[in-house]
Design a protein that fits this description.
By secondary structure, the protein is an alpha+beta fold. It is built from five helices and 19 strands. A six-stranded antiparallel sheet has the order 5-6-3-10-13-8. Strands 11-12-9-16-19-14 form a six-stranded antiparallel sheet. It comes from Aquibacillus rhizosphaerae.
């Protein structure tokens, strides 16, 4: 085993958090801002890159790996949480929006998992976090959020987050599934993945489902989310009051009565 062996427990239903149990000198890595709480005796450190063990690449190798993370929109740095005390300690990491936290044992997935760029939450130290480029670069640049994917490599535990309801689908050899690029959360490394243009200009312009689909071909396993953060954000933005008229919000009964009675809010 190259990765630290960590135990964990999930709490909650739609707004979950994962509690990681660390033995002395065990470490978990996470994105900055993912921590919810931790016991006394856990030491935090900001590291350059993904915090995985150096495999001989030196500083330039770490710099290249960190640069790849920037392409996915993530930070150059990650945070490590190490049990420097006596006995077992716990650190908890919360999901960023409503959905599910999915524990992934990379040793059971042939050592590799490909996931959405913002799906990663935390992992045992030793898990390498990079990017996964697809073959058709042209389609990828216009394929939206589904093109540049993160890859998690190692043999330890990793935790990813999916919005809404998560659905796991096992594809048989040759079986093909078409998924909205935003709804694809993760897939095993043996999935043949591509981004395809939706044919028909009317479908593309008026279909409301975007211009591209992720085409997944088995064998392998894929994880799909029902509520990508991009959809959630767009709905919130569309429902937000526009301009200076802030009295038209949903459920503003008191505000409506105030307006009827001729009140002035200024």
């Amino acid at each position: 085993m190259n990765n630290h062996e960590i135990d964990y427990k999930l709490y909650g239903d739609d707004m979950q958090f994962v509690e990681v149990e660390l033995d002395p000198n065990e470490t978990v890595i996470a994105e900055a801002g993912g921590l919810m709480m931790m016991d006394d005796g856990i030491s935090m450190e900001t590291v350059f890159g993904d915090g995985s063990e150096d495999k001989g690449g030196g500083f330039m190798g770490k710099l290249l790996g960190a640069g790849k993370r920037v392409i996915t929109g993530e930070s150059l740095f990650m945070t490590t949480f190490t049990n420097t005390g006596q006995g077992k300690k716990h650190a908890s990491f919360a999901s960023p929006y409503p959905g599910k936290i999915i524990p992934m044992d990379l040793s059971e997935l042939d050592g590799k998992l490909v996931c959405q760029k913002d799906a990663f939450l935390a992992a045992a130290k030793g898990v390498a976090i990079g990017i996964e480029f697809q073959k058709k670069v042209g389609a990828g640049f216009f394929g939206g959020e589904g093109f540049i994917m993160q890859k998690l490599e190692g043999d330890g535990m990793a935790f990813i987050h999916a919005g809404g309801t998560m659905h796991k689908r096992v594809l048989e050899p040759g079986e093909t599934l078409r998924v909205d690029t935003g709804c694809l959360v993760a897939m095993t490394g043996d999935i043949d993945y591509n981004v395809e243009f939706v044919g028909g200009i009317k479908t593309a312009m008026f279909g409301g489902e975007g211009l591209f689909f992720a085409t997944l071909k088995g064998p392998g396993t894929v994880w799909i989310q029902s509520l990508p953060f991009s959809r959630l954000a767009s709905r919130v933005f569309a429902a937000a009051p526009q301009g200076g008229n802030k009295s038209k919000g949903e459920g503003s009964i008191a505000g409506g009565l105030f307006d009827i009675l001729g009140g002035d809010r200024r």
